[in-house]
Specification:
By secondary structure, this protein is α+β, with helices and mostly antiparallel strands. It has 4 helices and 6 strands. It has a single domain, classed as TATA-Binding Protein, CATH 3.30.310.
């Protein structure tokens, strides 16, 4: 009798693992990217792409937390539902933190890669970081399209 529930739990765990890894499909620039969302920009300048990235994320309510080289880290505080889904008992807030990488492809061509993390903030020593793999993908793909359109001047 106890073997059946154990087998059910194992099967459910295997199915969940399979689904979560298969949802990490590539968006935008081919099989070389495992980014949550991405785009490829053609015939543009580094400064135009930089400006497009900053303005699109700012307009969506994000603050630029840091920039190092070609990597940008943005942040926006999540609401109560975000805390319920991604937080713990010790959470003082959960922030949505996209990390954007600008890849120079040469000849005025660039790739913009975006991964999104839900990061727990608070006094706890163990802060959870959750990399999004499916939820919200449509919104971030829309942001990448805006970055492309602005950077290419269309």
């Amino acid at each position: 009798m106890k073997l059946l529930p154990l087998l059910s739990v194992c099967a459910l765990g295997a199915a969940t693992l399979t689904l979560s890894t298969s949802c990490r499909g590539t968006v935008g620039i081919g099989s070389s990217s495992n980014a949550f969302a991405s785009t490829e920009i053609h015939n543009s300048s580094r400064s135009s792409v930089d400006s497009a990235i900053r303005s699109v994320f700012r307009e969506d309510g994000f603050s630029l937390v840091s920039q190092s080289g070609n990597t940008y880290q943005f942040q926006k505080w999540g609401g109560r539902s975000t805390e319920i889904v991604y937080g713990t008992w010790f959470t003082e807030g959960v922030a949505v933190e996209p990390e954007v990488e600008l890849v120079v492809l040469g000849n005025g061509n660039y790739a913009v890669l975006c991964d999104v993390y839900m990061r727990e903030h608070g006094s706890s020593l163990m802060k959870a970081n959750h990399r999004l793999v499916a939820s919200g993908k449509l919104a971030y793909n829309g942001m990448m399209k805006k970055v492309k359109k602005r950077a290419e001047g269309k």
